[in-house]
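Lecture 7 notes: from sequence to structure.

We start with a single chain of 453 residues. Read the sequence below before looking at the structure.
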Amino acid sequence: MSFESLGLSPALLRALADQGYTRPTPIQLDAIPQVSAGRDLLAGAQTGTGKTAAFALPLLNRLYPNGKRPENARRFRALILTPTRELAAQVHDSVRDYGKYCGVSSTAVFGGVGMPQQIQILRRGVDVLVATPGRLIDHIDRRGVDLSGVEVLVLDEADRMLDMGFMPQLKKILAMLPKQHRQTLLFSATFSDPIKQLAQQFMRDPVEIQVAQRNSVASGVSHIVHPVDASRKKDLLLHILSQDSRRQSLVFSRTKHGADKLVKHLEQFGLNAAAIHGNKSQGARTRALAEFKSGKVTVLVATDIAARGLDIDQLPVVINVDLPMVAEDYVHRIGRTGRNGAEGNAISLVSQDEAGLLRDIQRLLKRDIEISAVAGFEPHSPLVLTGTAGNSRPVQKPQQRGKPQQRAPGKSARPGTHAPRAHAGNKSRSSDDGRPGRRDGTSGQPQPSRWGR
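Now the structure, written as tokens:
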């Protein structure tokens, strides 16, 4: 089925053609007709399946019928809420790209940048407002936003917003929106019970779409665990990255301090690396992501906030230097690779004290993950855990032979040959927007992807 069959305006079809999009993804096929029919929607799909286009296209089709803005239409007709700054910027870019032949009027407001310019834009008014809850509340308190004319509300990555502690802000915002004749769309990578309870409170008989099972991962992602002593994780990471220093690699650290230490270690051996986390300024985070997108930086070290909403086109590998404390976050982390049916790799460096975390991940995935030691980095004691089938198993399976070469500080880790790229693309109590939350976070200017935009 093509986009033409979904009833989109010629202006939207032209914009899609410009970007090379010809066939809708499953979530778009299911969601666009329901949204176009005016139904409230509770939609879930694993990351990288095109959720943004699934709500942005029918939203723009409604606001700009026949590709034009209706005369005398009120401002602030659509509100899109996202949990992080980067996702807000990314969604705004997508709305602008899809609506470029409609004359779309939109803006994004989020924390980490100055208020004055945002205030000026909001005073002029826009049709589509993309915002993080915290910064939107700041503008509401300054009487800079009137939400009484909102026709469509979108909650993107709603489970992440709840996880970050945004429920009070969401309730305050919802109280200011019109209750009658408002369409509400809730999109999420996964659906928890609190999400469904939230939907019952403010949605009207929503249609529920689930194109992937809860906490499922893309079928094209290969998972592997390398057991290693905690003290040797940095060296093993360097060894893995040095196999192809030009390959884009997204590396996850549990803490901000750990992310910074990893970057320093990698740079010492000639790798181009950068970190994004909550202690970085918005400018630094945006710059790091832009350099990763351009290839100037090949290794991006991030804390868990980057696992949600960050689109990096054809990212070949995600490496977990530390396993996440919450098993569901493993799904979100590795969702950055293997997008849109492409192949990807998820590598985890696991010490014995993380055996329980690995066991939780395997239970969540309902599968065992291959455990393979790297020659020269075998742990002092075999990694032992109970598999999903209840089998306790020590692992002594070397993946590579031969002692890895050690390079002197300051020498480049770039090998002489370039292996082919795969075709794919400390818990904190405050969020990046200064709002209560349970995980450390960061975000930044994302790289566009084919359907996750």
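The chain is about 30% helix and 15% strand. Keep this in mind for problem set 3.
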